[in-house]
Amino acid sequence: MAKRATASASSSPRAAEPKRELQAVAGAAPAKASLALDRVIHERVRLAIVSALAVNDTLTFPELKRLIGTTDGNLSVHARKLEEAGYLSCHKSFEGRMPRTEYRLTSGGRQALEHYLEHMEGLIRSTRGGGR
Q1: How many whole angstroms separate alpha carbon 36 and alpha carbon 99?
Q2: Is 47 in contact with 68 (CB distance < 8 Å)?
Q3: The total number of structural domains that make up the chain
Q4: What is the largest CA-CA distance in the chain?
Q5: Is residue 29 a part of any domain in this protein?
Q6: Three-class HEC string of 85-130
Q7: Which tens digit of pLDDT belongs to each residue from 38-97?
Q8: Phi/psi of residue 90, nearest 5 degrees
């Protein structure tokens, strides 16, 4: 079996590059907050749910489903994840014999969305060169 030649690190073009200090994005998050995006909100369907509830006091399951354009199962799973994180509340009742599920953004959910949006705005400013 032939030996495979391996290039040393010094011959790599990347090895010649000086180490850069990584910087946080200005205005992205409070100083003590994590630099990572909120993974609970960052997922597309969950971001759509939180955004829809940010501009509507309450929305029923069918209203959210129609607004977001997703399936019952998909909406249910993502709404539960947001509820477990404390970002939305779910109230189940009946209208006659028909079940009614109503969602509302909690104050924690509104605050998490604000932090998420500030972080994203900071990233946008930074990539456009305005964050320096």
Answers
A1: 38
A2: no
A3: 1
A4: 78
A5: no
A6: CCCEEEEEEEECCEEEEEEEECHHHHHHHHHHHHHHHHHHHHHCCC
A7: 999 999 999 999 999 999 999 999 999 999 999 999 999 999 999 999 999 999 999 999
A8: -125, 125
Domain assignment of residue 1, yes or no? no
The one-letter code for the residue type at 32 is K
| Length of the chain, in residues | 132
CATH of the domain at 116: 1.10.10.10
What span, in angstroms and rounded, lies between the C-alpha atoms of 49 and 75? Answer: 9
**Directed axis angle between helix 44-55 and helix 107-127, to 10°?**
120
Parent domain of 113: 35-127
Examine the pLDDT at 13 and tell me if it is beyond 50: yes
Token representation of residue 3:
């030996």
CA distance 73 to 112: 24
Rounded to 5°, the CA angle 34-78-52 comes to: 85
From residue 12, alpha-carbon distances to 7, 18, 19, 34, 108 in Å are 7, 13, 14, 33, 48
Q: What percent of the chain has pLDDT over 70?
A: 71
